[in-house]
Amino acid sequence: MRLDLRLQHGESEAIPSWLRAAGALRPGGSLLEHVRIGERVADETRMDGIETRRRSTEAVPPGATQRPILTSAPAGTLRQSLRRTHLQIATRHLADVVVAAPAGRIDHQSAGDFEAALMPLVADAAARRGAFVLDFSAVDYISSVGLRVLMVAARQMREREAQLVVAALGGVVAEIFAISRFDRVLAVTATVDDALARCRAAAQAAQRGPAPPA
Amino acid sequence: MMRVRFWGTRGSLPVALTAAGVRQKLLATLRAARGRALASEADLEAVVASLPFATAGTYGGHSSCVELDTGGPDYIVCDMGSGLRPFGQAATARRKAAQTFHIFLSHPHWDHIMGLPFFVPAFIPGNRVVIYGGHAGLEAALRRQQEQPSFPVDFSIFGATMEFVHLEPGRAREVAGLEVTAMLQRHGGDSYGYRFAGPDGVVVYSTDSEHPLAQREHTERFVRFFRDADLVIFDAMYSLADAVSVKADWGHSSNVVAVELCQLAGARHLCMFHHEPVFDDAAIDAVLAETRRLEEITRGAAAPLRVSAAFDGMEIEL
Fold first, then answer.
1. C-alpha distance from B95 to closest chain A C-alpha (Å)
2. Which DSSP category does B111 fall into?
């Protein structure tokens, strides 16, 4: 199933860096994949040479196709976040690497949905012993509950000797990672390109196998 | 006006400042004084005032003990860690007449009861010590602590009247002019937090409490417990990363969860408590600075949440 979203002029600013780099989204262009948090995998397809997944069993809300999918929820306090917040994930596959780009706030309200959407992707990547990159460039905020989801995902990847890298943290989120010490327990890179390079290096090292004894 | 005094703020095990630690503070002080006027007492005070708390002071090392001074005749105390010893000495010095102590116990782990055998008021006939808690068998736990061969002075030696009151979580009870409500917390063998509501405000004492992040109903329960509190004394022993990984199920929490719960609850003042015993003063200072920054960047449009790190001897007025 293809979900075709049209971007309005100026909305490309909200697009994660990897999508901009890939040229997958541009004003007037189509979105290759749309993952709406909390919905289950319905089918899988391939479009324009890039493997994509449609993750929806729910009807798309009226008008959704006319809105950018990567908009962030308005900034606000945690108290405000008790209200329903809007968080979405877009994903793409690059060889053995899954790149997922959540956008918005991962707070107490949305973290459960974030986990429900993320973990099947992580399980799939772990089963294939592929790598998983989380492009956080469009994440405005992450709470302790969201960080716990990342810890669970990283553990699941490690158990299968697969790698999870979190890339492109924005200012506030980077500070939250530092204060929570998650920057010490998760692999974090400055950019998605750095994350991909790290994954490639890890894959090459694994392919070479252990170094012969000196 | 209610005054909250911290007599013991360290988690798990009492610690003491070492000679090496004192030397570091002295050197840091002398470096800060280099090139400054030192002729008068005011000059010296100015240098000391310019130093960070980790240099000019110390967080101390007694284990958990907090006094809530309502101005009334009775004492209200949370936990009986090693900080209970200096509290008892101060209380004895303050009033010579018979005294009543209402002590709310979070749980009977050693670091929260070890002060009782050294609590001078308990040895004075005419005094009354009332110990409140949610655990069954609190009295047996305290008596066992003072049995041979663990301790040479038996519990039966106490001259004060020793009473025990079992509290039901969620059921408010009036004690010495405060409405006290207990909350069951997640900790090995359970622990209980206490919400004290009085005419001067609300104080929540919530230590040795782990918060399972995936359980939304748990979070909502604690948000209600902390709701609009003037002061939340919170177990912020670990970093969040440690609390959800290598130290998961160890029964403690983090500064990040402390800020989030207080923000969700609309609390006014977070006081981090039960400090990690391996942390020196500089490490706790750093955690405090980071936690204040976290509060700042996540506050949004809400009113600022004041953030403190408890130290032995600290006083907070409500």
1. 45
2. H
Between residues A3 and A24, the one the model is more confident about:
A24
Q: Which of B216, B241, B298 comes nearest A181 by C-beta? A: B241
Q: How far is B17 from chain A (nearest CA, A)?
A: 26
- Nearest-CA distance from B263 to chain A in Å? 6
Cross-chain CB nearest to A151 (options B245, B256, B301) = B245
Closest CA to B142 of B158, B124, B125: B158
List, as ranges, residues 18-37 from B with C-beta within 8 Å of A: none
Q: How much is the pTM?
A: 0.83
pLDDT for the residue numbered A85:
53
The Cα B228–Cα B214 span in angstroms is 24
pLDDT, tens digit (0-9, with 9 covering 90-100), for B143-196 = 999 999 999 999 999 999 999 999 999 999 999 999 999 999 999 999 999 999
Least Cα distance to B79 among B61, B71, B67, B70 occurs for: B67
Q: Which residues of chain B have a CB within 8 Å of the CB of A143?
A: 260
Sign of CA dihedral B38, B24, B22, A178: positive
Per-residue pLDDT tens for B275-310?
Answer: 999 999 999 999 999 999 999 999 999 999 999 999
Using an 8 Å CB-CB cutoff, list chain A residues near B234. none
A181 touches chain B (CB under 8 A): yes
Instruction: Measure the CA–CA gap between A91 and A95, rounded to whole angstroms.
Output: 13
Q: What is the pLDDT of residue B94?
A: 87
CA–CA dist A3, B300 (Å, integer): 34
In terms of C-beta density within 10 A (0-12 exposed, 13-18 middle, 19 or more buried), how is residue B201 classed?
middle
pLDDT at A154 exceeding the cut of 50: yes
